[in-house]
Amino acid sequence: MKWERLLASGRFGEGMKPATSDTVRSEFEVDYDRIIFSAPFRNLQDKTQVFPLPEQAFVHTRLTHSLEVSSVGRSLGKSAGEFLLEKYPNLQALGITSSAIGSIVAAAALTHDIGNPPFGHAGEEAISDFFRLHPMGRAWEKHVRVDQWADLVNFEGNAQGYRMLVSKQFGLKLTYATLAAFTKYPRPSLIAQRDIARKSQKKFGFFINQLTDFEQMADALGMEKISQDSWARHPLAFLVEAADDICYSIIDLEDGCTLGLVTFEETLKLLKPILGDKFDKEKLKDRTQAQNLGALRALTIGQLIRETVEVFAHYEENMRKGNFDKALTDMIPSAKALAEISKVSVQKIYRSKVVLEKEAAGFQVLDGLLSVFSQALYHQFYAPEYFSGQDKSILRLLPEDFPLKGWGAAVNPYPMLRALVDFISGMTDKYALNLYRRVKGISFPGG
């Protein structure tokens, strides 16, 4: 893979453009602005990060998390860009700047959670479990292809995000480079054999009906295949992944400390190995805990950014050749310290009572919503003898643009099911909970 093509600024439907910078905004800055003003991005303000929609302003939502990941991503991208321009002077002659590279990573990082359903990762599992285990979900298996069924029983927020970013519904028309940097897992759900040694093979990055879109993007950027059904990552995707890893490791720990799930002393002990000689206990005196946490977070993230860029520079050629496929944060000097933070976070934060209660509620809500809408759709088009007045009322709650025509026993319902999952996964936590209560008769509109 060559940087000249990897950094090209073409968009879907608009052909390829050289990677030159506009005098006002680069094409990649345009991407960033389009994302900020999009409806899917705004919805992240009411989606769970870790803790369930608390009243405390200091705890993060998906929106604040995404903004922070984007900020770290921009720093990573600009620093990596300076290295690339020094190593490959021809890039500068093409009009490529370190700021443009930073903008690619920032825009991709801004969208990294855009496909996540309500209730965080529990929501992903709830959607998968509905099709895999619920009788009303399993009823669809005989009507779809094997690769389509693999999509439905393995809901993946990354693939849902890619679907949203290329969807005509939202009209984002992002550059190929930003979309590729977003795609951490450049493969479909069903592949012949997964290489467990490659980080990019851990999950999948697009649903089967987005395969043509992905192939178009990969061809435009010169992304190389590593097997019959999988591609090598765009090198900037490693930086997007690192930005996310850095933020959730450090900021989830900060939130856990603020909520009293982890003591300040334990938080300090976990961060010391990363900070090294940058840690000065004297500076913590005569300040509030919140101020100290903020200062420690900033110093820690700054150090992790520097370490990550050094590792990126070291492995950059192997990334372009498709030979490097690990998380950058697993390769930095602070990797052991991050692993210890992750271990403590799992024990004391992610398995805390408040988080587990939120996850349990998420399973009930999403399973309940999927069951009533799925049953109504199945009865109308695939078992009309059971279609009831209740089903008719439920279907009227679907969005106006929901595809409700052309289905029947002889028609593959996969596109309709994808639209149903779009509807459910696109909900905010509060909307999903309120709609669940209403369709289940637990509460009434205006009540």
Q: Which tags fit this structure?
A:
eoxyguanosinetriphosphate triphosphohydrolase fold, 447 residues, putative deoxyguanosinetriphosphate triphosphohydrolase fold, 3 domains, mainly alpha, Hypothetical protein af1432
The overall pLDDT, averaged over residues, is 88
| Largest β sheet strand count, sense and barrel closure | none
- The number of helical runs is 20
CATH class membership of the largest domain: Mainly Alpha
- CATH superfamily of the largest domain, please? Hypothetical protein af1432
Shape estimate: globular
Task: Quote the CATH topology of the largest domain.
Answer: Hypothetical protein af1432
If you compute it from the alpha carbons, what radius of gyration comes out, rounded to the nearest whole angstrom? 23 Å
Number of domains: 3
In which range does the helix fraction lie?
Answer: 55-70%
Q: Spans of 5+ residues with little confidence (pLDDT < 50)? A: 51-57
Which class of secondary structure composition applies to the elements?
A: mainly alpha
Separation of termini? 59 Å
Domain HD/PDEase: 58-258
Organism: Algoriphagus aquatilis
Keywords: Hydrolase
Protein name: dGTP triphosphohydrolase
Describe this structure as you would to a colleague.
The chain is globular, with a radius of gyration of 23 Å. It has 447 residues and is mainly alpha-helical. The longest helix has 32 residues, at 289-320. Mean pLDDT is 88; it is low at 51-57. The protein has 20 helices and no strands. It has 3 domains: 3-117 and 156-235, Hypothetical protein af1432; 118-154 and 352-447, eoxyguanosinetriphosphate triphosphohydrolase domain-like (eoxyguanosinetriphosphate triphosphohydrolase fold, Orthogonal Bundle); 240-350, Orthogonal Bundle (putative deoxyguanosinetriphosphate triphosphohydrolase fold), CATH 1.10.3410.
